[in-house]
From TrEMBL:
Superkingdom of source: Archaea
Protein name stated in the entry: Lipoprotein
Record lineage: Archaea, Methanobacteriati, Methanobacteriota, Stenosarchaea group, Halobacteria
Organism for this UniProt entry: Halogeometricum pallidum JCM 14848
């Protein structure tokens, strides 16, 4: 497929910098665009038949206490603030149905609080094979709250000085933070006479507990009415989440074949891409893969990402995976 990008850029440059500079630019464009072999894979994944099934919470059914209280406070205009814990945990943005009305859920940070939480850190102190059983407690013999804390603190301890991944969403300050007072009261490790060593994964770990200061956000829940019918919320969700709308009847047989293969094992093509695939990419508004330097521009998405499409009356999530290799 001939490059239209080079021609457009050459025409734009000709009047400003002269033909010699344009010639050099054309050489560089050719090198960066075609110097690497690019392979693009297009895949489709089935989603729920309606967006409201997947994205709307019905608080009348789930009965999550903090969600329901936060939504009721926001709807009624009463004061309600939560410390540390976001009022509506989960995907952002989120929507909920309450008493027949659909709301978009959000929160506003209105302040901060200085609080103290216990932090559990573990330090390796030997192997269980070499230790007297009376000197440590097994992780599985601890209360559930401590079992979870030991597992997460162990991940942090294992990572010290080693390259590798750590679940930073769980690990904090190099260990595990007991944030909930009620839960912390159930802990044996936090007690003044609690065990000083715990066994986990065939090793003995020395227990270190520190009470440290945290500055935590204070949230105010916010809920905006969006719709009062299923059709209304479906339309609102489409406007927010769905990118391309494609009618198979408007496609050529070659274009429909691209979608058929994408729904199965995936459709893969090398650059320069076949005309049918180029047409599909245009319909998806993924022009970074066909205009300009594919190996550098491909994969650059707008925010928020529009990776949902409506094809033949059904919703799909799509993914484009670009692979390059230097041909030397």
């Amino acid at each position: 497929m001939p490059s239209t990008t080079s021609r457009r850029r050459l025409l734009a440059l000709a009047g400003a910098v002269g033909l010699s500079a344009v010639s050099g630019c054309a050489d560089r464009l050719s090198e960066t665009t075609d110097g690497d072999a690019a392979t693009l894979t297009f895949r489709l994944y089935d989603r729920a038949s309606t967006l409201r099934e997947e994205y709307v919470r019905d608080l009348n059914e789930t009965r999550v206490p903090w969600d329901e209280a936060a939504l009721a406070a926001a709807v009624n205009g009463t004061e309600d603030a939560t410390q540390r814990r976001q009022p509506f945990p989960g995907p952002d943005p989120a929507w909920a149905k309450l008493n027949g009305t659909y709301y978009r859920l959000d929160e506003v940070v209105v302040g901060e609080e200085e609080v103290t939480h216990p932090v559990l850190r573990l330090h390796e102190a030997g192997r269980t094979d070499d230790a007297d059983e009376s000197t440590y407690v097994e992780r599985d013999d601890l209360p559930k709250v401590d079992q979870r804390a030991v597992q997460i603190a162990y991940m942090a301890a294992r990572a010290r000085g080693n390259a590798g991944g750590v679940p930073w969403g769980l690990v904090q300050r190099g260990g595990y933070v007991y944030r909930d007072d009620d839960t912390a009261n159930q802990s044996e490790l936090l007690a003044d006479d609690g065990p000083s060593r715990v066994a986990h994964r065939d090793r003995i770990w020395r227990v270190e507990v520190a009470r440290e200061t945290f500055h935590e956000a204070v949230y105010r829940p916010d809920a905006d009415p969006v719709a009062d019918s299923e059709a209304g919320i479906e339309e609102a969700l489409r406007g927010r989440l769905v990118g391309a709308r494609i009618d198979p009847e408007t496609l050529s047989e070659a274009e429909r074949e691209v979608f058929r293969r994408a729904r199965g094992e995936g459709y893969t093509a090398e650059h320069p891409f076949p005309d049918a695939f180029v047409s599909v990419l245009k319909r998806l508004d993924e022009r970074a893969y066909i205009d300009g330097n594919v190996t550098k521009d491909g994969g650059a998405n707008d925010y928020p990402p529009r990776d949902l499409l409506r094809y033949g009356g059904a919703y799909y999530e799509y993914r484009l995976a670009l692979e390059t290799a230097d041909e030397g």
